[in-house]
Design goal:
Order of helices and strands: EHHEEEEEEEEEH
Number of domains: 1
CATH superfamily: START domain
Distance between the termini: 29 Å
CATH architecture: 2-Layer Sandwich
Strand content: 35-45%
Oligomer: single chain
Length: 155
Amino acid sequence: YKAQGVVEDVTNRIVDHIRPGPYRLDWDSLMTSMDIIETFEENCCVMRYTTAGQLWNIIAPREFVDFSYTTSYEDGLLTCGISLDYGEVRPNFVRGFNHPCGWFCIPLKDSPGHSLLTGYIQTELRGMLPQSAVDTAMSSTLVNFYSDLKKALKT
């Protein structure tokens, strides 16, 4: 999946809200928990997070364990990740898997204070799910992601 939108804020502040850390749980309505399991350096960690059930719980809550890295990219920032085979799955969750994913955030040259945020998401939710349910959930999740992020940045 690819998601793209203009966000009214500077790249550093936007990426600070997306990457693993203190802001993400405050605004992302899909995430229900996030723990940084191991930190390798300031912008590099392994995190475990859980997501809420979706589509009236047709899609049960999921758990992911991802390696995450954030770095400079051209004039902006890139935060990327990939799932790891790590530890036991907690009860009441299905372990999902993220293939290489990333969010690119670059400033708009002709509109200071605005940034272009582009996400590439390759998620395998796993479990016995019809693809149509996954596609429906992903589209609404990505719309809500941008909406929730924009609200959080205004506070």
